[in-house]
């Protein structure tokens, strides 16, 4: 029997195809306009999409696989900071999860944590983040840090092996990403839920025994204090990563709530799930099992002929280089792929529209009703937060037990 | 000609002047509080909403301070969310040049400028202390002397990033496949004492070209930095003569940078208490001051200066006659600091003796003296006088309650300022924050 799955969408510029901005339906001069993003995310929300991821990078060429990404002028360029874009979208939406991309290499982990906590407050519990490790050469030049032990898993043009294990600086970037995620979770827990007491009798605004300095010392950075932000509705943001290979799988298994994977087909999914399960058995400390979402890059038209034609037009203008499986066809074709992946045991699907807003419209108007009617799509469980909608129960701060234990000991004494 | 008044609305901070014991006091963290505060300020046609920045929770004698409001959101994220629920008002955040990286902060502020349609502003502050640095990768590495070096280099670099996309850089010609115009984006090579970058900015030119830059430093270095880089100065000079002197000094520094008097606005922090009569306002002012400085607050304030436990002292009694605990450090820097502490204490003792102040009276005098106290007519007239007589260009108004602290100001004082002909009666459609402040737009750039 087909398992019920969750549906997410991945939003990036004019779409995931590098020629998407040239389509007649595209809005290439609006890629940094607030109205463009509001309409995209509200469209996804109306269809009941669980969450939208927002791409980001810290250089003009971004995470393109193209060697000359920084200099070529025929690709859509220019973007907004994803965490701030998500924060802007929070008051304009009510239900959809907002999952911006966060680079772990250069930004301050403390700012990352407080930004995501604030997104969670402003969205009433719909914040997540997709953490990305490493930086390419231009990102490093943009920051100009004089010493930087980490390197990039995206400097693909100039390297031989794509295995992270073969590059000490890539391994360092992944260790750092793990530390950043760990610090973000700890900062999110640093205020217990009931730390603010507003006790007018004693004159105390808060119970300082329920706020915990982090004293975090990692290989790459240290954070002494507690967060400046009181605990947010979800407690912690939803932590997601995209992973294709062993080292990122291990990062996901150890630190993430959700992993995005890119199986070539439903058959390849079993191998990936097995590898993730093995890594989880060895490394995982999060109480809930890792949720696995499979990525599909989709181009949808009413007929296969029209889809093939559109695809040919795009490919003629620019060759797509992608990690994800590409589905070019009708909504029914996409539904068949989703059903096969659901049977293979994934928890969710993240669709990357080849063209925006066109393929997002096709997803919301056609694919969603079809998978819903077919009983493949998990129905909304009505839970108030993104984590709970995914079945991740809200937990007290990791520090709460210590306080209550301490309090009990005191009572006994 | 009547000079126009500019007003900023300061969200109540995490110190004793924000009264949380009042029954109308709301959350300092829920987005609804920020939304209410910004909407009220927009109803009052303020130039901008002003937010502080949190880098570390306040501590008192090694423990988290628990008497005042504590905890606040990430400044940038709240400004971005406020852009969604406001349409005209400026959105200005305090952001450190020490604990941020220029490329990252420049793209974040440009993002807010895009999301708000040209309403972003940045209060550029410097910090160097190890206490705050302990939460950051780039921790307390910065020497005190380098604070303004970094601030100036940081701001210079950020301004070059903001100017690096020409206004017509995006062609987006679907037929030819040309998205970016050749030469439409300048590469920014910036080698200075503290930076060495070769950057290509990734956010297109934003509606204002760059955010409005606010600056608050009061030292000679800070004033020079402001005269060179700032569009607005947020000062603490609110006594009339002192304010006039400050205004003269800072505006006098502008010509050295080829700037006119009106290209920089000075908006000192101001508090206010209203009443139907002046007597009633004075009574309310005293009540609010007593809420702002509870006995514990007063004792804590002195403990911070003396570095001693004063929990046995009576806040309504005289100042402690013990010496401060200045530790056993003998290094030159510490010796100077100790001399400064002793000097400060001598000053406080003299003040208390002259005015016959109790501990609590003294702390009220130091932290809770309200700038404008009186009827709405009196407060409006005073604000107008400061602006017309070139003591300020307006004020950064701070309420004592979150989030309703400025509601009364909007209802009662704003209409009177409008009647005086020195305050706007509406926002102009599509006005940027530069426009609201009466600043020249940033020069637009096109490819040559």
The CATH homologous superfamily of chain A is named Luciferase-like domain
- The low-confidence parts of chain B are none
Give the integer mean of the pLDDT values of chain A.
92
Helix fraction bin of chain A? 25-40%
CATH topology of the largest domain in chain B: TIM Barrel
* Number of beta strands of chain B: 17
Sheet of most strands of chain B:
9 strands, parallel
**What structural class should be given to the helix and strand makeup of chain A?**
alpha/beta
Output the structural class of chain B.
alpha/beta
Share of residues in helices of chain B: 25-40%
Distance between the ends of chain B? 40 Å
Strand arrangement across the biggest beta sheet of chain A: 1-2-3-4-9-10-11-13
Give the domain tally of chain B.
Answer: 2
The number of strands of chain A is 13
Concise description?
Chain A is built from 12 helices and 13 strands.
Explain the overall architecture.
Chain A is of the alpha/beta class and 413 residues long. Chain A has one domain (6-412): Luciferase-like domain (TIM Barrel). Chain A has helices at residues 34-46, 82-89, 109-122, 137-143, 168-189, 246-255, 266-283, 304-317, 331-343, 358-373, 386-389, 400-412, and strands at 6-11, 51-54, 97-103, 128-132, 196-199, 204-206, 216-217, 222-223, 238-242, 258-261, 291-300, 325-329, 348-353. Chain A has an eight-stranded parallel barrel, surrounded by eight helices. In chain A, a hairpin with a 4-residue loop joins strand 5 and strand 6 (204-206). In chain A, helix 2 packs parallel to helix 3 (109-122), helix 3 packs across helix 5 and helix 9 crosses helix 10. The termini of chain A are far apart. The model of chain A is unreliable at 408-413 (pLDDT under 50). Chain B is of the alpha/beta class and 448 residues long. Chain B folds into two domains: 6-160 and 204-279 and 369-436, Luciferase-like domain (TIM Barrel, Alpha-Beta Barrel), CATH 3.20.20; 294-366, no CATH class. Chain B has 14 helices and 17 strands. Chain B has helices at 31-43, 75-85, 102-115, 130-133, 147-162, 220-229, 240-252, 278-292, 295-306, 332-355, 359-367, 376-388, 407-419, 433-436, and strands spanning 6-10, 48-51, 59-60, 63-64, 90-96, 120-125, 170-173, 178-180, 188-191, 196-199, 212-215, 232-233, 265-266, 269-270, 272-274, 372-374, 394-398. In chain B, the strands form five sheets. A nine-stranded parallel beta sheet of chain B has the order 13-12-11-6-5-2-1-17-14. A two-stranded antiparallel sheet of chain B has the order 3-4. In chain B, strand 11, helix 6 (220-229) and strand 12 (232-233) form a beta-alpha-beta unit. Chain B is globular. The mean pLDDT of chain B is 93. Chains A and B meet through helix 2, helix 3, helix 4, strand 6 and strand 8 of A and strand 4, helix 2, helix 3, strand 8 and strand 10 of B.
């Amino acid at each position: 029997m087909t398992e019920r799955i969750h549906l997410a969408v991945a939003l990036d510029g004019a779409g995931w195809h590098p020629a998407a901005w040239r389509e007649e339906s595209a809005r290439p001069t609006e890629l940094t306009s607030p109205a463009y993003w509001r309409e995209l995310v509200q469209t996804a929300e109306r269809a009941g999409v669980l969450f939208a991821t927002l791409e980001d990078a810290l250089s003009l060429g971004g995470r393109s696989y193209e060697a000359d990404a920084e200099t070529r002028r025929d690709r859509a360029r220019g973007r907004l900071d994803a965490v701030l874009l998500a924060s802007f979208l929070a008051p304009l939406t009510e239900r959809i999860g907002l999952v911006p991309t966060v680079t772990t290499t250069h930004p301050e982990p403390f700012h990352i944590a407080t930004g995501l906590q604030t997104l969670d407050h402003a969205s009433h519990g719909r914040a997540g983040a997709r953490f990305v490790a490493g930086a390419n050469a231009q990102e490093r030049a943009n920051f100009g840090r004089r010493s930087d032990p980490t390197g990039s898993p995206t400097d693909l043009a100039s390297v031989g092996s794509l295995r992270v294990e073969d590059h000490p600086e890539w391994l360092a970037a992944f260790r750092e990403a793990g530390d950043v995620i760990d610090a973000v979770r700890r900062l999110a827990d640093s205020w217990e839920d009931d730390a603010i007491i507003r006790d007018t009798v004693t004159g105390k605004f808060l119970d300082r025994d329920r706020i915990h300095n982090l004293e975090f010392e990692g290989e790459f950075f240290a954070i002494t204090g507690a967060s400046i932000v009181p605990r947010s509705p979800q407690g912690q943001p939803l932590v997601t990563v995209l992973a294709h290979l062993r080292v990122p799988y291990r990062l996901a298994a150890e630190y993430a709530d959700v992993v995005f994977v890119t199986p070539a087909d439903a058959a390849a999914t079993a191998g990936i799930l097995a590898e993730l399960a093995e890594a989880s058995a060895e490394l995982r400390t999060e109480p809930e099992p890792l949720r696995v979402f499979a990525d599909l890059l989709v181009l949808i038209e009413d007929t296969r002929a029209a889809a093939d034609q559109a695809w040919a037009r795009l490919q003629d203008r620019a060759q797509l280089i992608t990690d994800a499986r590409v589905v070019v066809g009708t909504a029914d074709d996409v539904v068949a792929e989703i059903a096969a992946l659901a049977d293979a045991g994934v928890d969710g699907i993240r669709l990357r529209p080849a063209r925006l807003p066109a393929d997002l419209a096709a997803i919301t108007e056609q694919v969603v009703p079809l998978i819903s009617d077919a009983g493949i799509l998990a129905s909304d469980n009505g839970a108030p937060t993104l984590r709970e909608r995914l079945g991740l129960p809200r937990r007290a701060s990791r520090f709460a037990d210590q306080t209550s234990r301490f309090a009990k000991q005191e009572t006994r004494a | 000609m009547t000079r126009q008044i500019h007003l900023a609305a300061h969200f109540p901070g995490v110190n004793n002047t924000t009264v949380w014991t009042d029954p109308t006091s709301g959350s300092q963290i829920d987005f609804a509080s920020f939304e209410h505060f910004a909407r009220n300020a927009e109803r009052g046609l303020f130039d901008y909403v002003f937010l502080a920045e949190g880098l570390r929770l306040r501590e008192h004698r090694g423990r988290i301070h628990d008497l005042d409001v504590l905890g606040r959101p990430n400044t940038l994220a709240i400004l971005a969310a406020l852009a969604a629920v406001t349409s005209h008002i400026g959105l200005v955040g305090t952001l450190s040049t020490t604990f941020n990286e220029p490329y990252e902060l420049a793209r974040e502020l440009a993002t807010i400028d895009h999301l708000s349609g040209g309403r972003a502003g940045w209060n550029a502050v410097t910090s160097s202390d190890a206490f705050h640095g302990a939460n950051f990768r780039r921790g307390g590495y910065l020497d005190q002397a380098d604070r303004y070096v970094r601030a100036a280099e940081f701001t210079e670099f950020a301004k070059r990033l903001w100017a690096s996309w020409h206004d017509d850089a995006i062609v987006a010609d679907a037929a030819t496949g040309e998205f970016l115009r050749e030469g439409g984006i300048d590469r920014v090579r910036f080698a200075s004492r503290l930076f060495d970058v070769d950057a290509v900015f990734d956010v297109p030119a934003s509606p204002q070209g760059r955010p409005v830059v606010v600056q608050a430093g009061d030292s000679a270095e800070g004033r020079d930095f402001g005269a060179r880089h700032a569009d607005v100065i947020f000062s603490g000079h609110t006594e009339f003569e002192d304010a006039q002197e400050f205004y003269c000094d800072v505006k006098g520094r502008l010509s050295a940078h080829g700037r006119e008097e009106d290209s920089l606005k000075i908006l000192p922090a101001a508090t206010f208490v209203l009443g139907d009569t002046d007597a009633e306002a004075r009574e309310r002012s005293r009540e609010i001051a007593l809420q702002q400085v509870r006995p514990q607050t007063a004792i804590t304030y002195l403990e911070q200066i003396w570095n001693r436990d004063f929990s046995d002292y009576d806040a309504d009694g005289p100042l402690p006659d013990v010496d401060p605990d200045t530790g056993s450090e003998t290094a030159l820097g510490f010796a100077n600091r100790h001399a400064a502490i002793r000097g400060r204490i001598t000053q406080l003792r003299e003040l208390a003796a002259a005015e016959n102040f109790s501990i609590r009276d003294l702390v009220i005098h130091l932290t809770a003296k309200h700038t404008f106290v009186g009827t709405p007519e009196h407060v409006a007239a005073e604000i107008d006088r400061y602006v017309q007589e070139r003591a300020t260009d307006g004020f950064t108004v701070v309420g004592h309650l979150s989030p309703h602290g400025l509601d009364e100001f909007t209802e009662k004082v704003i209409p009177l300022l409008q009647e005086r002909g020195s305050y706007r009666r509406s926002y102009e459609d599509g006005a940027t924050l530069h426009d609201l402040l009466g600043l020249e737009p940033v020069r637009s750039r096109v490819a040559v």
